[in-house]
Structure formats: structure tokens, C-alpha cells
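Forwarding the complex inputs:
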Amino acid sequence: MSTVTLSHLLRSQESSLLEAWLAEQRRSGNVRNLIADSDLKRQSAEFIQLLQQTVAEGDSTDYSSSTISREMRRFLDSITGDRAQLGFSPSETATFIFSFKRPLFEAIRTSTNDVTAQIDEVWNSSLLLDRLGLYVTESHQKAREGIILRQQQEMLELSTPVVKLWDGVLALPIIGTLDSSRTQTIMESLLERIVETGSEIAIIDITGVPTVDTLTAQHLLKTVTAARLMGAECIISGIRPQIAQTIVHLGVELGDVVTKASLADAFKIALQRTGFALAKRSSITAVK
Amino acid sequence: MEILQSDVLQIRQPEDIVLVRTAVRKIAIASKLGLVDQTKLVTAASEIARNTLDYGLGGEVRVDMVRDARTGVRLTFTDEGPGIPDLERAMTDGWTSGKGMGLGLSGTRRLMDEFQIASKVGEGTTVTIAKWSR
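Prediction (whole assembly, two chains):
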């Protein structure tokens, strides 16, 4: 029975298979020196152990229909997760599995003289390793998607802080693009803070917005209108010269919205409107 | 006219518009466009790319760095969407069939050195725009 020989082979030649496999992995350079040698050794040894189990428990002739054991899945998920974090490509990760083929086939070749048995074994073990390799690729992709999703949400959270500059004065520094989903988040957090602090003036700073097209302008104007309905005036600051020229050519009318070149200018206006004045200490003592 | 460099980008989802802007900005810098012209070109690309996605139901853009007497950037947006029945009205300031400001096409024409639009109802729309270095 062919499976008997494969599981027997994996058990009896465990250490020599491990040695040959590690040599193969180092030679093909797929570890990119990012994984410590001791870790690689531990992972490889664990994989061979789990493979023994899979072969022993699996269907005697057809590995393709056997399901991958839960332990094996957990192990593969954990190594692909680590490698995705380290920036491995899916094929680099799958090469971990596929690089086991050469030492394993070599062991099968030397284990018997029966050519038919050799071919059977090679076919069976190849099927099994291919399935595991494909599983690793899928798992790797899921890990990457998870990372991307998390980063997107982190960016969405990070990029919309509403800060209090003074009593009754809020500032909203916008960085990046103003697409629909972000505008929604920005508008909500601004309106919430206006209510919370009872602010009369909100400064929207667009120094960090690289492109202001008609959609961005429309979103800005909507935010200003909404803030006005809540009883707060908005000042848009940080409009760079090239953006000003572009807005004019586009034909966008900012209407009666107050705009300033820099956040500092906008802040000065805001202080004036809320009844404050900034003065140097020396000039105050001089008046006395 | 000589094409020095060419690239095709797909416009299938909102994130693709960001990629179009990034690619156009890069090629505008490589073509030695000034800061104002870079900004105008990137803004125009953003407008038309969004039209391609929202009204043309997705398409692609060809980004060319070209040389005639001067170097410049030429963008060709193509979609196979429903097309524009009345081009003259579509080019009017403030008119929109959607929810925008109605300044995308007319504003883009003012931002660019060259602007061509061709559309057939039921077949799609092609917009070609170009900006030359000074």
C-alpha cells in the first residue's frame, strides 16, 4: 500500500528529510534572511510532523479529497500570517511548501526500486503538497487583505481630528483626498464637536489636500453649509496659489465663505470675531 | 507628434481615481510642467476620471508623455457607457445630469491647452485633453 510507505518514509527519515529541506530552502534563497534560522528549523520540523499526521489520518489512496487537518490549518495560517507581515509575496510563502518536494521525491526514489511504486508515491505526495501550497496562497491573500483593511480604517480614524484652538474656535486640518466616505466622517466629527463645545467658528484647513476638484469643492461647501445650520461660521484656510488658480479656472464659486491663505491668518480672524485680541506683553505694559 | 512614454490605467472603482491622479502628477513632473500646470492637469484628470466612472460606468485612461515642439502630457479617457446625447448642453457651466456642480467638463476645458470630446449614444465617450510645458 503506497500510503504506508509515505508515512513510513516521513517517520523513518524525518531528520535526514529535515536537513535536506533546510539546505534546499537556504539554497533557493526564499527565506530572504528575514526569518531566523532557528525559527525556520522549528517551522520545518513542525510541518514534517503535521504532514506525518495528515498522511496517517488521510484517505489511503487519494489525498486530494482528504481535508487538511485543523492543526495543519492553524500551523499554516500562523506561518503565512507572519510572512505576510514581513512582506513576503504569496509565491515566496508557498515556496516554503513546494521546496519540500525535491528532498521528499529524492527520498522516495532511494526508498524503492519499483518504478511504478515510485511514480505512485511521487504523484500522491505531489497532490498533497500542491493542495497545501494552494491553501497557503489563499491564507496569505487573506492575511494581506486583513492588513490592508486595518490600515484603511486606521487612516480614516487618524486623518480627521477636530482640534480646539481657543474658546469657541475649532480647527479641522484635512490631509489627503476628500472622497465621499471620508467627507461623511469629517462632517460628522466636525458637527459633533461644534455641538459639544458650542463653538462659533470652525477653521477648515486644506493645506494637506493635494487636489481640489469640483467634487472636493462641493463637499467642502456642503460641510460649511451644515456647520452654518448648527450656528457656526466656517473659514477655509490653506489654499495654495496653484489651487486658487485651478479653482478659478474650474469656475467654482466659493460664495460668501471666508477664505485665508494660512491657518495663522484664519486664526487671527477667528479671534477678532470672538472678541479677543492678541498683543505683545511689552506693548501692554507701555500703555499702563 | 512623438510619444515618449505611455501607460494605460483602468478606472473601475473610486480608489482608481486616486491612482490616476498619482500617475498623472508623476508624468507631469517628468514632463517639466510648472507647479500651476501640474495642479491644473491633475485636477482635470480627476474630473474626467470621475465622469468616466460615474457617468461612463467605468473605462480606462491612456497617459502619454508627448513631444511636438514642446513636451507635454496627453490623456485619453475612454468608456463604453451610455454616451452623452447633447454635447453642447453637457459643456454648459452648471448643467449636470447627476448630482455634481456641473463644472467638470466646462471647467476642464478652461484648465487645459487642448480639449476634445466625442460621444455616441449607446456606444460611449472619449475625452482627450493635453497640457504643454511652457
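The interface with chain A takes residues 14, 17-18, 21, 25, 35-36, 38-40, 42-43, 46-47, 50, 93, 100-101, 103-104, 106-108, 110-111 of chain B (CB under 8 Å).
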